[in-house]
Amino acid sequence: xxxxxxxxxxxxxxxxxxxxxxxxxxxxxxxxxxxxxxxxxxxxxxxxxxxxxxxxxxxxxxxxxxxxxxxxxxxxxxxxxxxxxxxxxxxxxxxxxxxxxxxxxxxxxxxxxxxxxxxxxxxxxxxxxxxxxxxxxxxxxxxxxxxxxxxxxxxxxxxxxxxxxxxxxxxxxxxxxxxxxxxxxxxxxxxxxxxxxxxxxxxxxxxxxxxxxxxxxxxxxxxxxxxxxxxxxxxxxxxxxxxxxxxxxxxxxxxxxxxxxxxxxxxxxxxxxxxxxxxxxxxxxxxxxxxxxxxxxxxxxxxxxxxxxxxxxxxxxxxxxxxxxxxxxxxxxxxxxxxxxxxxxxxxxx
Length: 350
Description:
This is Curlin associated repeat-containing protein. Keywords: Signal. It contains one helix and 25 strands. It starts with a helix and ends with a strand. It is mainly beta and about 350 residues long. The protein has a 25-stranded parallel beta sheet that branches.
């Protein structure tokens, strides 16, 4: 392999000008155990295009103090590793990792990141991705399509962040967003080995849409939202499904749908004018919610197999004034507890 000589020549050419304009790197590696270290700084519209074909390839790329930097990386084969750091504004990252293997990607966009975008596709088995964005109007797009063991950790700090995630055939996702106007759209179609997701949002006007499909396996989702006017729409279709949630703030909305053999949802809501609506169907379903504040609404609808041994259990606890609670079930246990003035409660068992 003559790759080190090629890289030395490329990096030597980049070292001469202190404030280069429109720097460009194009690198192709074919073979085993290749490594590449690429650096661009103090430039405008810097670009990197890299193609690695072979086993055990690894790339480290840094683009710092740059405006409009672009990185396009494609890795084909097993055991690829990638680390990218972009510092500046209006930056773009597009990464594709193909074929079987334990793909790894560590991608960061930091510093005044107005308009930054990050796209990642991993098609190998047991792929892992660690993503970080700090700035305004950031966009993540991630697709993991391998069999089993996929892992995603994504963190965004700033305003207007948006994250779209798709995981297939077994996956774990953890998302943390801090700032205003954050949005998460998560799809786990993980029928091979089940899936779990942990979503945390802090700020105002946050939104979450999560859909988990795990066939006969278990799906688990944990949601935490802090702020006002947050929205969450959650759906689980699995043999065994579980949702836990916590919302703090005013005018938050939560809607959850579960279907499978066993389904369970539990959580708390603190604030005024919050709404929570649950729909469950299965052999054994359980739902429990606690609301604190004024003017909150809680609704639970449960359908179970007639005359099943386990049946359905629904519990609503509300503290404050002007609450409304509704339970409609084919099941055996329903309980509503309210403390305050002007509250309303309805229970219907069929």
